[in-house]
Specification:
The chain is an alpha+beta fold and about 725 residues long. About 25% of the residues lie in helices and about 30% in strands.
C-alpha cells in the first residue's frame, strides 16, 4: 500500500493541539502552517523586524513580533519564543529546521514552561546534537562510522598531532554544526594549522561552539540519508532513503528519492533494508521520537559499505521528496506523535512509488562564486500552468518582498514527481524553466544546467561532482533579443497611444514630424556594465517598428503581450516570450517619462536579467567607466559584495600586501566571504572586526608600490563626450 496524508493513518487517542506556534521563518514556516491549517489547528507565526511583511506572517492565524532583524535577537531568543507562546495560548511549538530546532536548552525551557516541543526528547537532542558524542554513541549499537578522531575539547595542537593517524585528505567538521556549514577539506598536512583557525572562527560564529573533530575524507562519496519515524510507544520505522550527493561547499543543492545508486544495483533492495535498519537502530539508541533523518556516507566504489555521519533530529529541508514518493505528510506525523498518538503504520506498509527530485532555489549569483544576493521581488510566477499536479513549490516569496541579508539565501524549493527518474527530472526541468522571480538574482539557470548534465542524468553522482562540473557551465548573457525587447517596451510607453486618448499633441514629445515619426534612440545599461543603444523607427503599437542595435543592420520587430506580465518579441520572424517587470526607481520623472521605467527585468527559460534605462548622464558615465576598464588598471578599492558584518581583519594599515592576499572577511546570509587584494601595494583599512557594512562600501584601498603608467583613457574621453552628444 502507498500511504497518503489524506488517508486516516491512526485513530486519535487524544485531541490534537488547539494552537501551535511555529518558531521559524521562510518557506519551512509556510509549509508547517499549511499542515496545521489542514488539521484544523490555529497557527502562530513569529517574526523579526526584517520579516514584518513576510509570507509566513501573512499566512498564519496570529503573528507575534519577537525582536530586531539579527537572529540572535529574535529567532534564536528562547525567552521571546516562550513569551509569544504564553501571549497566544500556544500549547506546542514546531521548530522547523535550523535556528532552535536542535537546541537542547530550548527543549528544556519549553518542558519547564509546560509547552510541548514538536520534536524529540532531551536525550536525543543532547546525544545527536553533538557530532563527536553521536559518533561515539552509535558505534555501540552496530552502526558503522567513518574513521577519524572525535574527542571533546581537543586543541589545535592535539588535532594536528592526531591528523597523521586519520590520514589525508581529511575533513574538519564542527561538532555542533549542521547543514554542511563550517566543514573544511584539508589535502596537505602543511595546510591544516591555518584551516583549523578559520574552522574554529566559523564554528564559533555559526553555532556558538568552536569544538572541532577530524574525519577521513571518503573518496567519490555519495551522501545517502534515511528518513525515520518514531513514536513515544516504542515503534520505529523508516520511509526509505534520499540521495543528497549533489552538494556545493557541503550544502545540498539537488535531492531525490529513492537513491539512483540503490535503484541501479541488483541487490539495491537488500542494501536499502540494511541502511534502514541501521538508521532505526541509531534512532532507538537515543529513544528518539518524531520525524528524523540519519545520514550516511556511501562509497561509490563499494556501495555495500556505508558509514554513519550524523543524525538530524529535526525535519530536513529535503523532506518533500520522501513525501512525494510515500504520500506521507511528515509534519502531520510530527504533530500527531508529539500529541501522544501511536504510530500504527508498520514497515511493510511503506511503499516507494515513482521518483521525486527537489531543487533548492537560492538568491545568489552562481557565476560570481555563488555570491548571495538581495533585492525586491517585482514579479513572481513559481508554478507553471502545465505542471499537471506533479510539481510542488515550497516557497517564502511574495511579490514586493524584500530579500534580507540577515538570513540564509534559500528562498524556495521546487519539487517534481515522475513515474521514474527520467520523468521526474524532465518535469523538474519544465518547472524550473517556467520559474520567474524577477528583481532578484537566483540560481535557477544553474540548477537547469546541473540537472541536464550527462553524469547527473545517468545517476553518476558524488559529493564532488558540482565542483568538477562548474567550470564547464556557460551562463547566458543579455543579448540582442533582450535589449530589443526592452527598447520596444520603452518605445511603446513613449507613443501617444500608451499615454491615453485625448492627450494634446502639444504636450507630447514623441518626435512627430511630417512624413512619419522620428527614430528614437534608447540606451540601456547591461548587467556587465556596458551600454547598448537601440534605434527604433516606426510604431511599436501598430506593429511596424524597425530596430537597429549599436548602429548595426535594421531588423523588423514587433511586441505584443500574450498574458499578464509577459511580452512576446518577434525579431525578423523569430519569436521569444519573456516575463517582464518594469520598475521605476530614483527621482520622479516628468511628462511622458512618467510612463517609462528606470529599469526592466526580463525572464526567459529560467534565466533573467536586469537592464537599466539610461539617461544621458548615466549613459555617459557608463561609457567612460568602460573606457577606463579597457585600459586594464585594477580597481584599488576593495568593496563589500553585500550588506554584512566584518568578522576578521588579517592585515594592518600600512602593510605591504600581494595581489590575491586575504585582507578581511565579511559574513552575510550565514556565509563568510573572504576579500582579497586586487593588486600589489600598501593597504589602507577603513573598518574593524565587528563593523556592519553596506553593499559596495569601500573597506580597504590598495596604494600601488610602483604607480602604473598614466592611462590612455584620458585621450579618448573627449571623443566619447563628442560621440555621446552626437547620439542625442
Amino acid at each position: 500500500m502507498t500511504l497518503s496524508s489524506t488517508t486516516p493513518l491512526s485513530t486519535p487517542t487524544k485531541p490534537l493541539f488547539g494552537t501551535v506556534l511555529v518558531a521559524n521563518r521562510g518557506e519551512i514556516a509556510c509549509r508547517v502552517i499549511r499542515t496545521l491549517r489542514a488539521l484544523g489547528i490555529r497557527s502562530v507565526a513569529v517574526y523579526s523586524d526584517a520579516d514584518a511583511g513576510a509570507r509566513h506572517v501573512r499566512e498564519a492565524d496570529v503573528a507575534v513580533r519577537i525582536g530586531p532583524a539579527a537572529a540572535s535577537e529574535s529567532y534564536l531568543k528562547i525567552e521571546a519564543i516562550i513569551q509569544a507562546c504564553r501571549d497566544t495560548g500556544a500549547e506546542a511549538v514546531h521548530p522547523g529546521y535550523g535556528f532552535l530546532s536542535e537546541n537542547v536548552d530550548f527543549a528544556r525551557s519549553l518542558e519547564k514552561a509546560e509547552i510541548t516541543f514538536i520534536g524529540p526528547g532531551v536525550e536525543s537532542l543532547n546525544v545527536m546534537g553533538d557530532k563527536i558524542r553521536s559518533k561515539n554513541h552509535v558505534t555501540g549499537y552496530g552502526v558503522p562510522v567513518v574513521p577519524g578522531i572525535a574527542e571533546p575539547g581537543m586543541t589545535d595542537a592535539k588535532l594536528i598531532e592526531a591528523a597523521a593517524g586519520v590520514g589525508f585528505p581529511l575533513l574538519i567538521k564542527p561538532s555542533a554544526g549542521g547543514g554542511g556549514k563550517g566543514m573544511h577539506i584539508v589535502e596537505r598536512p602543511e595546510d591544516l594549522a591555518d584551516t583549523l583557525v578559520t574552522a574554529r572562527r566559523v564554528a564559533a560564529s555559526a553555532f556558538g561552539d568552536d569544538t572541532l573533530f577530524l574525519e577521513r575524507l571518503v573518496l567519490t562519496p555519495r551522501h545517502i540519508e534515511v528518513q525515520v519515524l518514531a513514536d513515544n510507544h516504542g515503534n520505529v520505522i523508516h520511509l526509505g532513503e534520499r540521495e543528497c550527493s549533489l552538494q556545493r561547499r557541503h550544502q545540498k543543492v539537488i535531492e531525490e528519492a529513492p537513491s539512483p545508486l540503490l535503484e541501479s544495483l541488483p541487490d539495491g533492495a537488500a542494501i536499502r533494508a540494511r541502511l534502514g535498519e541501521a538508521a532505526c537502530n541509531a534512532a532507538r539508541s537515543v529513544n528518539y521520537s518524531g520525524a528524523g533523518t540519519v545520514e550516511f556516507l556511501v562509497s561509490d566504489n563499494a556501495p555495500d559499505e556505508f558509514f554513519f555521519m550524523e543524525m538530524n533530529t529535526r525535519l530536513q529541508v529535503e523532506h518533500p521528496v520522501t513525501e512525494m514518493v510515500t504520500g506521507v505528510d511528515l509534519v502531520e506525523w510530527q504533530v500527531r506523535i508529539a500529541a501522544g498518538e501511536e504510530l500504527t503504520v508498520r514497515q511493510d506498509d511503506v511503499v516507494l512509488t515513482g521518483h521525486s527530485v527537489e531543487a533548492r532555489v537560492y538568491a545568489e549569483v552562481p557565476e560570481k562564486n555563488f555570491l548571495p544576493s538581495t533585492g525586491r521581488v517585482w514579479l513572481l510566477d513559481e508554478v507553471p500552468d502545465d505542471a499537471a499536479g506533479n510539481v510542488r513549490v515550497d516557497s517564502a516569496l511574495l511579490e514586493g518582498l524584500e530579500i534580507s541579508s540577515s538570513y540564509d539565501p534559500m528562498i524556495s524549493k521546487v519539487i517534481a514527481w515522475g513515474q521514474d527518474r527520467t520523468a521526474a527530472l524532465d518535469t523538474l526541468d519544465m518547472a524550473l524553466a517556467g520559474y520567474s522571480a524577477l528583481g532578484i538574482n537566483t540560481n535557477v539557470e544553474y540548477l537547469l544546467l546541473l540537472i541536464n548534465d550527462d553524469d547527473v542524468r545517468a545517476g553518476r553522482l558524488d559529493t564532488g561532482l558540482i565542483e568538477r562540473k562548474m567550470p564547464e557551465f556557460t551562463f547566458r548573457r543579455a543579448g540582442e533579443f533582450e535589449v530589443v525587447a526592452a527598447a520596444l517596451y520603452v518605445a511603446a510607453m513613449q507613443e501617444p497611444e500608451a499615454q491615453g486618448a485625448g492627450t494634446s499633441p502639444w504636450d507630447l514629445r514623441d518626435g512627430w514630424r511630417l512624413g512619419g515619426r522620428a527614430p528614437r534612440r534608447i540606451s540601456l545599461g547591461t548587467p556587465d556594465g556596458g551600454v547598448a543603444t537601440v534605434e527604433v523607427s516606426g510604431s511599436v503599437g501598430q506593429g511596424s517598428a524597425m530596430v537597429s542595435v549599436d548602429g548595426g543592420p535594421q531588423h523588423q520587430a514587433s511586441l505584443r503581450f500574450p498574458k499578464r506580465h509577459h511580452a512576446e518579441v518577434i525579431l525578423d520572424g523569430e519569436a521569444r516570450v519573456y516575463s517582464l517587470a518594469p520598475v521605476s526607481t530614483g527621482p520622479v520623472r516628468t511628462d511622458r517619462d512618467n510612463m517609462v521605467p528606470t529599469e526592466l527585468f526580463l525572464g526567459n527559460g529560467g534565466w533573467s536579467c536586469r537592464l537599466e534605462v539610461l539617461s544621458r548622464e548615466s549613459r555617459l558615465a557608463r561609457v567612460l567607466a568602460a573606457i577606463e576598464r579597457e585600459e586594464g588598471a585594477a580597481d584599488p578599492a576593495v568593496r563589500s559584495p553585500m550588506p554584512g558584518t566584518v568578522v576578521s581583519v588579517s592585515v594592518s594599515n600600512g602593510d605591504i600586501v600581494a595581489a590575491g592576499q586575504v585582507l578581511l572577511a565579511v559574513e552575510a546570509m550565514k556565509m563568510e566571504h573572504q576579500l582579497v587584494a586586487p593588486l600589489d601595494g600598501t593597504v589602507h583599512i577603513s573598518i574593524a572586526s565587528g563593523d556592519l557594512v553596506k553593499a559596495d562600501q569601500v573597506l580597504a584601498t590598495i596604494h600601488p608600490v610602483h604607480p602604473a603608467a598614466p592611462s590612455k583613457a584620458e585621450d579618448t574621453i573627449e571623443e566619447a563626450v563628442i560621440a555621446m552628444g552626437a547620439a542625442e
